[in-house]
Design brief:
8-stranded mixed beta sheet, Nucleotidyltransferase, domain 5, 6-stranded mixed beta sheet, alpha/beta, 403 residues, 14 strands, 15 helices, globular
Length: 403
């Protein structure tokens, strides 16, 4: 069975085509810079040469059309016809309070995704545009939505409620939701397999560190707390997002400095984080290079980033009454040995000890803690697309059984 995975972002669409008979990837790719100058499609078949197609991509329908054409192209395609695609799995960021699991996309689910535009305007709307474009081309196959928020549905009230008048939760669903759920769910399961233990027996902290970053406390296989909140702005310092801060700062910026609300929103989401602190780049690789050449501001940004991670490790160890494992994943978590070392420095009182030699290795799933470290520290490459494909297949099979 061939399942296509679509991840429609604010200016791009990522895709993977799986053969779920053996979970092999047939092709992967990206349509980037949608409705911008310099747009293109990068298509990489599992066998054969990759193709880069430069073209104007004014909207998501054109982007999806290009993806379908690439998949069946005589030179670099991997299937004979799009009719071979049995289902499409879609990444959707926000499911709010009403959606707590992966689901078939029917008119009611589409309505709810649109209802939550206000909660995730930079994510849910592009997600929905990708769904609509795919349904126009493949109207007769199942379409499944897998939500970033779903894994965090078990967080208890004391963790998800904000200390503002309760009526805002009751009437407007204002609460902590958490994101990156597919990644946290995938790597926590893989970490348990790596350790040869049952996920249900572990107290685990998963660190998804990329341009967007979050930490989750995973106890007995369930997320019981996570650093992102009502929106993806809360929590860790990120590439361009501020993370945790005093909310009164917003009032000060508006009332005393004279910024407008849209200006503050842009600043906190697009101009803050590592970029704002360093005044150089949002990319950890750039900051590591600059700091190695003596750029003190770049070093300071990295130290702030790692310090915030360390604070959450300590807090979530307390929440779970112990810690068996810390997992690093995503672009920074998988590739920056320096950030991993900085984040775990001086945590030996928790039983965390990093092995410098193991930490310097950059290849696949691996243990990076010392043999005598009471808490195992792992690097597990994330694979959100595979988890979405598995959920999609599982839902299809359950539906067939029900028939």
């Amino acid at each position: 069975m061939y399942i296509l995975i679509i991840n429609a972002g604010s200016s791009s669409v990522k895709y993977k085509l799986y053969n779920m008979d053996n979970e092999s990837v047939l092709a992967t790719g990206l349509v980037d810079r949608i409705n911008m100058d310099g747009s293109y499609l990068r298509h990489e078949p599992a066998i054969g040469k990759k193709a880069i197609i430069k073209a104007q991509v004014p909207d998501y329908q054109v982007a999806i059309d290009m993806i379908m054409s690439a998949l069946v192209n005589p030179e670099h395609g991997v299937i004979l016809s799009i009719d071979q695609i049995s289902a499409v799995g879609h990444r959707v960021v926000h499911g709010g309070e009403k959606i707590s699991d992966s689901v078939f996309i029917d008119p009611e689910i589409e309505r709810l995704i649109q209802e939550y535009y206000i909660l995730a305007p930079l994510h849910n709307k592009p997600n929905m545009l990708g769904i609509q474009a795919c349904k126009r081309i493949l109207p007769d196959v199942p379409h499944v939505a897998v939500f970033d928020t779903a894994f965090h549905r078990n967080i208890p009230e004391e963790a998800y409620l904000y200390a503002i008048p309760y009526k805002y939760y009751r009437n407007h669903d204002i609460r902590r939701y958490g994101f990156h759920g597919t990644s946290h769910r995938y790597v926590s399961s893989k970490a348990a397999q790596f350790l040869g233990q049952r996920l249900e027996d572990l107290k685990m902290l998963t660190c998804h560190l990329g341009n967007g970053s979050s930490v989750a406390a995973v106890k007995n296989g369930k997320s019981i707390d996570t650093s992102m909140g009502f929106t993806p702005l809360e929590g860790l310092i990120m590439g361009t997002r501020s993370g945790d801060m005093d909310p009164a700062l917003v009032l000060y910026l508006v009332e005393q400095i004279g910024m407008t609300v849209p200006e503050v929103n842009k600043m906190l989401n697009k101009e803050s984080g590592l970029l704002g602190l360093s005044e150089l780049s949002s990319d950890v690789r750039d900051l590591e290079e600059a700091s190695s050449k003596g750029n003190k501001q770049a070093l300071m940004a990295l130290m702030c980033f790692a310090y915030r991670i360390k604070k959450y490790i300590g807090a979530y160890a307390a929440v779970m009454n112990g810690l068996d494992c810390v997992v690093f994943t995503a672009g920074i978590g998988e590739n920056s040995s320096r950030i991993r070392a900085m984040s775990c420095k001086d945590l030996d009182f928790l039983g965390i000890k990093i092995d410098d030699k193991r930490n310097s290795i950059s290849l696949g799933e691996r243990l990076i803690s010392t043999d005598d470290s009471m808490v195992k520290v792992l690097v597990i490459p994330t694979n959100e697309e595979l988890l979405i494909a598995r959920d999609t297949l599982d839902i299809i099979r359950r539906k067939e059984v029900q028939k």
